[in-house]
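Assemble and predict.
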Amino acid sequence: MIILGIETSCDETAVSVVKIERGKFKVLSNVVSSQVKIHAKYGGVVPEVAARKHIENMMPVLISALKEAKIKKEDIDVVAVTNGPGLSVSLLVGVETARTLAFALKKKLVAINHIEAHILSNCLSNSKIKFPALCLVVSGGHTQLVLIKDFGKYQIIGETLDDAVGECFDKVAKILGLGYPGGPEISKIAKKGNPSAYNLPRPMLKYNNFDFSFSGLKTAVLYLTQKLKLTPSTVADVAASFQAAAIDVLVQKTIRAAQSNKVKTIMLAGGVSANKKLREEMGFVARKNNINLILPDLEYTTDNAAMIAVAGYFSAVAGKFINWEDIDVEPNLRL
Ligand code: KG4
Ligand code: ZN
């Protein structure tokens, strides 16, 4: 089966062709046109600018994804597109493109939940997921612990009550005068800092549930920096201490949730799962607890369309097709 995936939920215009042969995923192309540089000067994504750029980028990205995959448009079996959650004006560009392709080429169409696709990006490593599994979804808009009984059977057992952890990385980077997006900047600078330099709070770590809260940690960093003289060395120490606090909460809560639900596999997903320290710490604790850990390949951690195609495959196998007339954007879609 050949799936064409389309992703435009935020500031990445992405198209990918994925071939599934005997249950194995083969990425034939994975083209991502990022608008990060454009939004960096505003310190965040400007929806109207993002939507206009998606329109400009969509056709060139689609054409190069087909060319790179060395397939003709007739070879596509299913068109898969993110229809939520995300920015409505951005989602609309992908959905309208997919609708048009399905109509003009008479192809089957599936609507994909962006968060489910992040979770399923773990399948691209072709590692075997043993159920029940637990996925820590950590992106710019989401921080959730998702219990997975089987493909398509998700239960959110914990989530952030305020900011997402990726958003917190971005805001702390701004406080420290670093670039956007903040996650990669913080992790780079943190390497030069001392993670025990400042004792920052570990919000909700002691609570007997799997929810998170990150706005207090961000405020603690703000108050700390107001008392400090920011030099390259103090910035590195604050970045390292913040990163250690955020990762500590994420890892400990994930392991606790894994133990209490007797899960067989832990997975990470979303932009923040590119963080090297998070991957290392989770690896260390999973090994200690004898739980299988699957990490998404780095290129599939941030927004991409290969993960949309993978989710499209599972939806197609389950027969969850939608008519081109009926598909619509759902900016607040939940798992
Ligand atoms: O999944 P994603 O690409 O987009 C959303 O669906 O939100 O995630 C973007 C988020 C941003 O907040 C970015 O700062 C964060 O992922 N991020 C990181 C790293 N790389 C990206 N956070 C921490 N460490 C990283 N290395
Ligand atoms: Zn995402």
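The two ends are 25 Å apart (CA to CA).
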